[in-house]
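Q: Could you write out the predicted structure for this multi-component system? I'm mainly interested in how the pieces pack against one another.
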Amino acid sequence: MATQDVEAAAPPVRIDTEGDGPAPERPRRRRYLLWRIAGYVLFIGAWALVSSLTEPYILPSPLEVLREMGEVVRRDDFWINVSATLRHLAIGFTIAFVLGTTIGIAMGRSAYWDAFFRDYVMLTLTTPGLVFALICVMIFGLLGIGPIVAIVLTSFPHITVNVVEGVRAIPRDLMDMASAYGVDRRTRIRHIVLPAIAPFLFTAIRYGFAIAWKITALTELFGQTDGVGIQIRVEFLFFDIAGVLAWAFFLVGFALVMERFVLQRLERRFFRWRPKAFA
Amino acid sequence: MDTAVRSGRTARPRRSWFERTFITPRAARITAPVLFLAAWQLIAPMIPSAILPMPAEVAEAMWEQLRDGTLVEAFSVSLLRLAIGFSMALVVGSVVGLAMGLSPRIEAMLHDFVVVGLTFPYLIWGLLVAMWFGYGWIGPVLVVFIAGLPYVILNMSEGVHDVSKELRDMAAAYEVPRDRELRHLVIPSLSPFFFASLRYGLANGWKGLILAEVFASTSGAGWHITSMRDYGDFAGVVGFAIYFALFSIVVERLVFGRLSRRVFRWRPSLAREMAEPPELTI
């Protein structure tokens, strides 16, 4: 597993808190499956209980939210909005990845570029997304590219910090040896550089993605005519809690599926060649 | 982060006066914002001016916000909310995190919910508390609690896993008194995790709070910047955004950098790592 590889390079604290994307993975213990199920049962039970005690519009029951989700999917404009959001996400994230990787490589290799971008990267990691969303909507909203700019601005630093770590993890001794033996540049990149930074690239994608989809919805909510964000806003304005929850579960479900079944699978496939000892 | 290119090039060509003065990492930290300002000044006139204010207008708005006290008031309300919400998250999260660390059953029960808690967008929490509690303090404080909680839980449970089993066994074998074991073994190995939960929890609580204030309150920094936008005061919005950015730099650089160096004096490598920018969410 590549994440473990990153753990070896970084201190424990940093990875253990790895934000919203990658969950700390432990060997699946079947022994505790029952407890796991009990957790879900308790949660849904508590939810159903609270919703039966309050007015239905305050907290709709789990079943109602499920029904609402079905209704939302059947609406005419569902796919229009989802595809608009996916389009923003795809374009923005691709630009962010290229930009973030380029800057990350520059920062990893040169003290000058490191100093140049460091403040901006740090600032973006900690400034609330709302600030970026508002400004991007203000400046680029009329052009319809607000969400894309917001995605690029906020998610490229997450890609950059990981790429920087990756560049620093390139084994110096192997590079020296390669140059001593006159190994050509292509072979060096293929067999030393890429294997060293690949795990970091995957982490970069996961972090960047975790940020990107949230900022997309947020920016759309503040000033876009299509997209999931604007639908959430409409539900909010109509005081439809079931509707907001339905969209929330779609978003979270989409993010978890991407994270677990797409990105992690890809990563595992990519690192199959790696012997277990290094994994 | 000294990343000087440590290649074996020993005989470098002599650098000119210009290069020695301006092409240094120290100069780069000043060059970057200066270039940014220059680009802004140049590009702003090309876009309709009502939308992208000029740097001078923004500077004026920033001065105005500082002078009439809106800045201090907005941030102090928000910081108080952050403090209340996060203290609750710290207490509850530590208890739950320790329980998860000690018992695999509780961990199995709660693990998935913590993961979903990390993923759940603060935007949605902000909207929900607005609908549940209306405008006021309850909503924003609750979102800080919700946003900070999973980070505290995860770090504390990881911290418990990290306490060396061998050292604890040895302490038991040599009959080390409980309080000394706690003082010299458990607390030192938990402290980096506690520190991490403070840092990540606070940073994310802050982000959640700012969003919640937009929908669920009529005061605080998040509400303030949004209301300026609604009134069409674009220079004010950009100025306030710069204050947000300055605030994060100050907190990261001065508070957390210093603090981690102090707390981890006995582990210098860790202190350096903790001073690095973390990966955070929106």
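A: Regarding packing and overall arrangement: Residues 185-223 of chain A form the longest helix (39 residues).
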